Amino acid sequence: MPTPKSPDKMQTGIPEFDLILRGGLPRERLHLLEGSPGTGKTTIAMQFLIQGRDDVGEKGLYVSLSESTSELAASAASHGWSLDGIEVFELVPLEAQLDRQQSILYPAEIELGETMRLVMDRIQALDPDRVVIDSLSELRLLAQDQLRYRRQILALKQFLQERRCTTLVLDDLTNRDGSKDLHSLMHTVISLEQVERSYGAARRRLRIAKMRGATYQSGWHDFAITSGAVLVFPSLIAEEHKTEFEAGEVSSGVKSLDELTGSGLARGTTTMLVGPSGVGKSSLALQYVAEAVRRGEYAAYFSFDETFATLLQRSTALGIDIAEALKEGKLGWERANPSRLSPGEFVWQVRRGVEDRKARVVVIDSLNSYLSTMPEEQALTLQMHELLTYLNNQGVVTILILAQQGIVGDVQNPVDLSFMSDAVVLMRFFEAYGEVRKAISVVKKRSGVHELSIREFRLFPEGMQVGPRLMDFHGILTGVPSYSGSPDPLLRDMTEAN
């Protein structure tokens, strides 16, 4: 039995969308793009026609039953695009006309059959390679009968396939009764959604509901419409991204800290820094970032909580010059705004840092803010797990920061995400001899042995210091640690030491 031939595909003009479609839309087929008003159907359709015109010199036809030529041209101009060379055939009421250069027809005054005949005549006269019909909702209203409407769409489908056109039909779902009846007639069904939040930017997402005889990536994918581009962020499948990398430990540049962690952090693992606010988690992460830059590696820092100015001030206090590293392209810093950023876009930003810039150290600060980016916490946790698996497969040293609720006393984790990490570093405040001090310990490391001891650490202008083992600690895991030993092992200010 012969092996079925894969269909020839046509690119959409949106590279990441083509990745989801595994190469693009099958040629000479009828494809449905459905979604409520405002989800981005018209923008995607215009990009589809513009790509054919600019990249492969194909003829495009836009059949509009809801917008005038001038309205479509204005929408394209808002993205810096031009519809020159793309035929626009409008069938809209007179009162909607802003530019009456073409003849005006009145779909409300003619039968559905006549409207379909006019569309077919224009397609036959132009002989386009790509066609957009906007929208099926207007045709459905003209039909007034679901069976008649279905028959007309089936006739249009057969006509288009005979003309060897690749057609994208839009449906705004305003008449939801029977809106899915036509799915069986379509080769591909693409659904768009816009999700409004109580605060922050609305999120757009899409999925391929069906595509006959061709592979595609199922599930929902976030996307955004910006000035001049439609950006699609394919959902991550970690198992599709495995690379060979050299195993080894990554040093922090602080000998005593490396001793505590068991020679450093292993490549291809995730380390979670856990502790109350202000204990020094971000500063510890910066230490690993600075050491990666010194080794000549690229590091990527994704901050949900702090601005770059705050991070720069913190690094300067530690004697770390991240501004120069950023200027030289050795460090990437991204401000991840939870109220504007979708989870899919964040994952895509991390991937670009790893795949395009070859990042070897990635810091995510913090998990608390990441988890607040959307209410579906379970889905978000699974998405983060997939991202961490991907980073591990790439041999990246990943550092997650998780702020605990409270500063002293009953310190609690907002969520239990320790299962995601290969190593957990616990950081605590403690009181000794009339001073508030900081303790650090490693409570978990899957990739090898580590010290079970507790050490003090301090952040000096000359850099981070980690002291010797402290044997007289009690209650460090309860969040209310106490130290009853001698003051000799405790760290002192450099001025005192001198």
Walk me through this protein's architecture:
The chain has helices at residues 15-20, 41-55, 69-77, 112-126, 136-143, 146-162, 255-261, 281-294, 308-317, 322-327, 343-355, 367-371, 377-393, 494-497; strands at residues 9-10, 25-26, 30-34, 60-64, 86-90, 130-134, 166-171, 188-195, 203-211, 221-226, 229-233, 249-250, 265-266, 270-276, 298-303, 331-335, 359-365, 397-404, 423-432, 435-445, 455-460, 463-469, 473-474, 482-483. It is α/β, with parallel strands linked by helices. It folds into two domains: 9-235, Rossmann fold; 240-421, P-loop containing nucleotide triphosphate hydrolases (Rossmann fold), CATH 3.40.50. Helix 4 (112-126) runs parallel beside helix 6 (146-162). It is elongated. The chain starts with 8 loop residues before the first strand and ends with a helix.
What strand line-up does the widest sheet have? 5-4-6-7-3-8-9-10-11
- Kindly provide the radius of gyration, computed on alpha-carbon positions and rounded to a whole number of angstroms: 29 Å
Any idea of the CATH topology of the largest domain? Rossmann fold
Total number of helices: 14
Shape: elongated
Number of strands: 24
Measured between the Cα atoms of the first and last residue, the distance is 85 Å
| Helicity, as a percent range | 25-40%
The CATH superfamily of the largest domain is P-loop containing nucleotide triphosphate hydrolases
In the CATH scheme, the class of the largest domain would be Alpha Beta
Average pLDDT taken over every residue? 87
Low-confidence stretches: 93-98, 100-109, 494-498
Number of domains: 2
CATH structural architecture of the largest domain: 3-Layer(aba) Sandwich
Proportion of beta-strand residues = 25-35%
Mind summarizing the main beta sheet? 9 strands, mixed
